[in-house]
Write a structure and sequence with these properties.
five-stranded parallel beta sheet, single chain, about 300 residues, four-stranded parallel beta sheet, alpha/beta, globular, 10 helices, binds phosphoric acid mono(formamide)ester
Amino acid sequence: MKNKSLVSITDFTQSEIEELLDDMRYFEANPNRRLLEGKVVATLFFEPSTRTRLSFETAVNRLGGRVIGFSDANTTSSSKGETLKDTIKMVSNYVDLIIMRHYLEGAARYASEVTEVPIINAGDGANQHPTQTMLDLYSIYKTQGTLRNLTITMVGDLKYGRTVHSLLMALRYYNPTFNFVACNELSMPKEYLDFCEENGIKYHATQEFSEEVINNSDIIYMTRVQRERFSDLMEYERVKNLYTLNNAMLANSRDNVRVLHPLPRVNEISQDVDDNPKAYYFKQAQNGLYARQAVICKVLGIKIDKGEL
Ligand code: CP
């Protein structure tokens, strides 16, 4: 890591990603280790969350640490006008680690620059969600047996969906082929297409969520249209229901294909997919616990003695 905070998935090298995947395997088998005894961790969520906050807090609890924090910034002094800088400096007086979700892109980077306490980015606007990426990589590895040479189809809101931005960057080490399926308004931003070109990553951008695309995919990564990022709600109404995966659409898909979704879903995946063995999104969310245990230990510099139980 370039510094002790985790702001972007690009803070990790390939070998660090692979060490973390190994740590995640360890935590899946051994979720209750007292590795955070005596540590206090803050979870500061300026945006709503179910999975990320609760899996982070579960991770700390299972590792024997303690959690303070908030899930609604309206109950804090930021609602009285306290700046993010002052909030971070105050919380830094109390804790060993700050986990923060914020609606502004760049907020996690800024927070990491105003404190000596490590920051983990739990999502900053449409920018990055690096711990989601770790659980996504683990889910892909577990279901495919490899991260290499896979065809990964990303569908839906590729403009505002921070999870696809982080995942795309992390997969640069593994020779992926991407299908980017989105309408014009929600297409993958140019900076990420440029990133693909600079890194020799093959991609095909299309508006058609066709049978051919589905049947040639190893991973279908569905995303929610991020209503909260639209300034024009009429535009949201126009695009919100363009892409829905249903069970019949998987009829001729590859045996190994798995459907992922960072969740929450609205209506991007029909309920009739849930019982299909190719649906993996609930298990994917479970993997978030192991990802967050591994990342917390990494950021705090805690060595995991895997020989000792
Ligand atoms: N995947 C994800 O970030 O979910 P939450 O918004 O519920 O944390």
